[in-house]
Write a structure and sequence with these properties.
The protein is α/β, with parallel strands linked by helices. Helices cover 19% and strands 29% of the residues. It has helices spanning 50-55, 81-91, 109-114, 116-132, 147-158, 233-252, 265-269, 277-280, and strands at 32-37, 40-46, 63-68, 94-100, 140-145, 165-169, 192-197, 212-216, 257-258, 260-261, 286-287, 304-308, 319-327, 335-343, 346-354, 360-367, 374-382, 393-403, 413-414, 419-422, 426-430. α2 (81-91) runs parallel beside α6 (233-252) and α4 packs across α5.
C-alpha cells in the first residue's frame, strides 16, 4: 500500500475499435457507437447508454458530429475514418461519434442496402439518449459516406428534418438514382443538407440530393485517379473516395474549395456562370467548416447544382480565373487558342474555342496558386497539320482575365494592345495582377 499522500490512479477509458466482419455474418447488426475526444483522439469509447455518455468525455453543450461509413466490401474498418475523426476533433469544437455498422454493411451490396432502415432506427434511438441529456436537435451534424449518406437521410427522416445538418460524401448511386425521397437522402432530411459528388458515373448518385450539391470536376473522373482497370482496386474506388479526402482537406486547409451555381458543368467550363448571385445573393458556397457552407439565405433553395475544379492532390483547391479572347475579325471556322498562365513553378492552361463567325471565346482557367503569383500569359493559335503549307495569322483584338467570382467587369485585366498570332507559335506577354 502507498502512503495516503499518493494520488489515486486516474480512470482510463477502455478503448474500443471497429469490428471486423466475415462474409458469413449473422443477421445481427452489432451496431457500435464510439465516442472520440480531443484528450485521446485514437481511443474510441463504447457508449451504449446515457450513463456511458455521462461518464465519458461527452459534452452536451457542444455540437455533435456523427460519422456513418458505407458499404464495406471486405468487412474491415474504413481506412479514412481515423483521419476524419482526428481532423474533426482538431478543427471543430464538438463531440465526435463514429457509428460502426461494419457487420451490417459487409458481403453483398444489396444486403447492406436492406440494412439501411434498421441501422437508421438504431442510430435514431441512440440520438434520443443525447436529447435526454439536453443536446438540441439542431446541434447534431451527421456526416455520411456513400451508403452511409442514405443512412443519415433515414435518421433525418425519422427526426422530421429537424437535425441541424447532414453532409453526404458521394452518396451511393447504385439502386438509389430512381428511389423515392423516403428511401434516400434528400433536402428535407435536415435543416441543411449538402452533398459532395465525385463519382456520378459509377458508385455515386447522379442526381442532386441536398440544398447544395457540389459536383467536383463535373462529378466524375477526378484528377490523379487511375484511368485504367490495371490499377486494380484503386481504379474502382479512387473517384468515389475523393469526396472524403476533399472534405478532410477542406477542414484542414485555409485554401477555399469554393463552388459556383450553374446549369451544367459544360456551361461552367465555358465561362457562363461567374458569380453566385442566383440563388445565393453573391455568397458562393464552400466545402468544409464554414457553417452551412456559407449559405445564409432564407428560405434555402433546394437541389442547387454547384461546380468547382480541383487539383489532383491535397489541399486540392484552385483559384478559378475567367479568360476572354476577342478576335479582330470573324473567321469561317472555329478558332482554338491555348491560354497559359506562367509564374515561378506555375503553369496552368486552358483551350479557348471561338466558334466560327463569332468574335469572342471564354473559359475557366484553374490554377493552384493565387493569381498575383502569375507574371506572364502565353497565347498559342492552334491549327491542324493539314494547313501547314499555308501560313496562317490571326489577330487577337483583346485578351482579358479576372478572378472568380466576378462581381464587377471593370476589374478585368486586359493586355494593352492587340496580339498577332501565327499558327502553332506561342506569344508571351507580361501580366500583373494585384493580390487580394
Amino acid at each position: 500500500m502507498g502512503s495516503s499522500g499518493d494520488a489515486l490512479p486516474t480512470h482510463q477509458p477502455k478503448c474500443t475499435d471497429f469490428q471486423n466482419a466475415s462474409f458469413l455474418r449473422g443477421t445481427n447488426l452489432k451496431v457500435q457507437f464510439l465516442l472520440f475526444t480531443l484528450s485521446d483522439p485514437s481511443c474510441g469509447q463504447l457508449v451504449k447508454e446515457s450513463s456511458d455518455l455521462q461518464n465519458s468525455g461527452f459534452n452536451a453543450t457542444l455540437g455533435t458530429k456523427l460519422l456513418i461509413h458505407g458499404f464495406r466490401a471486405f468487412g474491415t474498418k474504413p481506412s479514412w475514418i481515423d483521419q476524419l475523426i482526428r481532423t474533426l476533433l482538431h478543427t471543430a469544437n464538438a463531440n465526435v461519434i463514429a457509428v460502426d455498422w461494419v457487420n451490417g454493411s459487409t458481403g453483398v451490396y444489396f444486403s447492406a442496402m436492406e440494412n439501411v432502415v434498421k441501422v437508421g432506427l438504431e442510430i435514431s434511438s441512440f440520438l434520443r439518449k443525447l436529447l435526454v441529456l439536453g443536446v438540441p436537435e439542431s446541434s447534431i451534424h451527421i456526416i455520411g459516406v456513400s451508403l452511409g449518406a442514405h443512412v443519415a437521410g433515414m435518421v433525418g427522416h425519422f427526426y422530421k428534418g429537424q437535425l441541424g445538418q447532414i453532409t453526404g460524401l458521394d452518396p451511393a448511386g447504385p439502386e438509389y438514382n430512381r428511389v423515392s425521397l423516403e428511401e434516400r437522402l434528400d433536402a428535407g432530411d435536415a435543416l441543411f443538407v449538402e452533398a459532395i459528388h465525385t463519382d456520378t458515373d459509377n458508385w455515386g448518385i447522379r442526381i442532386p440530393v441536398g440544398h447544395v450539391d457540389y459536383f467536383v470536376n463535373g462529378g466524375q473522373d477526378q484528377p490523379g485517379c487511375p484511368t485504367s482497370i490495371y490499377a486494380g482496386y484503386s481504379y474502382l474506388i479512387c473517384d468515389h473516395m475523393r469526396a472524403v479526402h476533399l472534405y478532410i482537406s477542406a477542414l484542414e486547409s485555409s485554401c477555399p474549395l469554393m463552388a459556383f451555381p450553374c446549369a451544367s458543368y459544360k456551361a461552367f467550363l465555358a465561362g457562363h456562370c461567374l458569380d453566385c448571385f442566383d440563388p445565393f445573393l453573391l455568397t458562393c458556397p464552400r466545402i468544409g467548416p464554414v457553417e452551412h457552407g456559407g449559405v445564409r439565405i432564407e428560405p434555402l433553395p433546394t437541389e442547387v447544382k454547384v461546380y468547382l475544379l480541383t487539383t489532383s492532390k491535397a489541399p486540392y483547391c484552385v483559384h478559378h480565373s475567367l479568360v476572354e479572347v476577342y478576335l479582330k475579325e470573324t473567321r469561317n471556322k472555329n478558332t482554338n487558342i491555348e491560354v497559359t498562365f506562367l509564374g515561378s513553378n506555375i503553369t496552368s492552361s486552358v483551350k479557348i474555342t471561338i466558334p466560327k463567325q463569332k468574335l469572342q471565346g471564354r473559359g475557366i482557367l484553374p490554377q493552384p496558386h493565387p493569381q498575383c503569383q502569375i507574371n506572364q500569359v502565353r497565347l498559342a493559335f492552334q491549327t491542324s497539320n493539314r494547313v501547314w503549307r499555308k501560313k496562317q495569322t490571326i489577330t487577337v483584338g483583346k485578351f482579358c482575365t479576372t478572378r472568380l467570382p466576378v462581381h464587377d467587369s471593370k476589374k478585368m485585366i486586359c493586355l494593352p494592345e492587340p496580339v498577332n498570332l501565327e499558327a502553332n507559335r506561342a506569344v508571351f506577354h507580361d501580366l500583373k495582377i494585384a493580390c487580394v
